[in-house]
């Protein structure tokens, strides 16, 4: 992909040509070109996430016990 400044430079040149190549308008052409290039760029959207209510400690303890694998301890003992 082309560099941002290259895109602006090309756009400013096209603006300059379309206006009949006037002298002393380079800053205005550059600003116009910058706005045009930015308007064509995709907008990054930020996905908002709703805050999550933390779980009570009792619930966390229950979930930890439920997901614990008892056979894991047996595997470690057998390999030692």
From TrEMBL:
InterPro entries: DUF2934 (IPR021327). This is DUF2934 domain-containing protein. It comes from Shinella lacus. The lineage of its organism: Bacteria, Pseudomonadati, Pseudomonadota, Alphaproteobacteria, Hyphomicrobiales.
């Amino acid at each position: 992909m082309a560099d941002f400044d290259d895109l602006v430079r090309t756009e400013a040149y096209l603006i300059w040509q379309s206006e009949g190549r006037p002298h002393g308008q380079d800053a205005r052409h550059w600003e116009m070109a910058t706005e045009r290039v930015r308007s064509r760029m995709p907008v990054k959207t930020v996905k908002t996430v709703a805050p999550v209510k933390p779980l009570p400690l009792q619930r966390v303890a229950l979930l930890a016990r439920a997901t614990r694998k008892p056979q894991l301890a047996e595997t470690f003992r057998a390999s030692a």
